[in-house]
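Example complex used in Figure S2.
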Amino acid sequence: MTAPWRTAVFEGAGATLWWDLGTGASGVDVWDAPRAAGWLDAMPREALRRLALDAWREAWWPASRVADVPPLDPRMLAARRATALAALDGITDDDRAVERALRELAAHVGRLGPLERVSRPAGTPEDPAVLGDEVRELADDHGVVLDAPAPAPAPQQEDYALAARGGAADGTTLLEGSDSVDPGSVPQGVVDPLGRLAWRVRLTMTLEVTVPAAPTVGAPPPVAPVAVDDAPDDGATGALAVPLQRRGDVWRGEAAVGPAALTRRPRLTLRVPGFTPVAGVDAAQLVEIAREVGP
Amino acid sequence: MTAETAPRAGVLGAAWRELGDGVAPLSNAAGLPLARTTKLILDPLVVRPVQRPHLGRALLDPAAARELRELLLAAGDDLRAAAAWYVLMKRERRARGITAGNAQDLYFQRAYELAHGHGHPSQDDAAVSAAVAGREVDDVHDDGRVTAAGLRDYLTTPSVADAVRRAIDEAWERQVRARAAEHGTGHDTEPGADGRVTALLDRCAADGRAELAAMVAASDGTAAGAALRAPGAARAAGMTELEVPGPPEVGAHASKSALPAPFDRSVLERLFGAISGLEVDGSEGLHDVVTAEARRSGEPWQLSDEADRVVMTAGATAGHLDGGTDAARRLEGRWRREAFVRQALRLPDGSGPADGAREAFLRRLWVRLQGRELRGTPLSSDGVWDLLDGAMRSVVLDRRDRVKAGLARTGATTGGVA
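Predicted assembly (713 residues):
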């Protein structure tokens, strides 16, 4: 197949369809021909592609302040997937796919409030209220409870965003630099894929690391990355790991470093415990794809 | 696929489309049958591959393809009527504010039975049809039926608990005696068992009738199940945490989220998830279900039906994912595709099939087989592959769900066992 991070995938019964959103190439991997024969030729590809695209958006949509890409509402994406999966019932590999999508939607609704309260995002064709009715009927038919207690209103991120940015160069910085973020090293909704992983070594011999957080609809996912330098060659401290904390729209963390930090530029990458990085992700191309496929 | 054969799914889909708009409520957006239309109506009630095994194969010869199409078209009136009854039942469900359970799972077979008994719902007397559909919905959700709580109350009644305890012990003693008798004859396993398992696993995705029958005739499932009583064997298969599994407890507590391995489950834990779906009325019915379960626990693989034991035996081999058979290669293919899809969905957790997948797969397979025995669903030849594939798919997808939920909840992903 192709690079997974720019590939939209439809998992059908007996066949997997894929679209490389970077090159425009597409293909079919038939893994059980008799099973796939039930639908492969009878089903318009466009409906399958739309569903696959929504799964891609959930995973890779590069919400970014730097590149001015607004975040997508996970409730809308999950609701769209649930209704599309219901229309494709009997064709998908998983005959519990609708129920799974509805449960994901229920989790989002529990966290962010009911779908009806979503303001209609610019550029999206659906009316959340209409989609909400459709999906509620679907949930009732599948025995999934969508009604959730309304959560406390999400804090306005901009309120404390500036305070968290910290002072600019205050005369105590010995060394500073930055690396680009690798979006493949973290799950969705954690860091701004177009942001930079900035570091500086202060006079107090602390290494301070900051990276812009991804803009999200409502509260961000509870995932905290660690900035690591896998091979500092000072021979004494071993691998360096700086846990980051989110304050508004910035991740920040610091760690004590030895004098060797002044002679060797740190090479920082992000890690999330338990998350295996996806290799080769090109953030700029993610943005290009996002502009092309739309919200 | 050769020129002479046609894929069953294709024949079924094409014939279904000939039935027209009347079956739309049982169809998807492309006018093809819904997954549960095939699973709950077409296969068990119309095509019935258990009685007509030649119609159950993945590839059909021209005569079988014709027969399948004709069967479906002949059932057209029933199917259109069933679709209309299903719509009415959903309307009554909504009117009653019922949201529990999957409407397709609960109503499809009933709608087909209504179609059989009443024909198409009357257009002239809509109120009568609505009342019939309403009664059916009420019956599905009947409060008088035995529920999980009712089962627990029953099993925790001291006299009942004592009787069930005795039934379990008798079943286990019977097995001990049977085993002693077998040892006397000098062979535990029929010669050639390995070859028969390989043959079934190589053929089951396409047909496998003869191979399944051969294993059943040789009691290969019983032999493999009995071999699990050797110290550590059942634990290695993921069926128990114990060195040697013992007779189950009767049980007083059960929780879906904290179920032990299958052989370590109490009778209550083995039954509480399925009981409300069994539509048991009253304590006499309960007595039968519970006694059958006590007896089942003493059998090889703790399953009653030899065909089901054969499926467990085949699964235990295929689950090694060693590429040795067609079925094993197909199951491995699921994990290969999953590795790519996990990256495409930005959910990689680094875990793979080596991390307890075989054990999780066998546990899932056992639960499905035991569930079928409870419901009295017979196993057809095509069912072997569907069962193996379905159990592995559910292990793969549940792991994916867990990775996703883990990220959303705590930020930590876990690759633990199912």
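Chain A touches chain B through 63 residues (CB under 8 Å). The first helix of chain A runs from residue 33 to 36.
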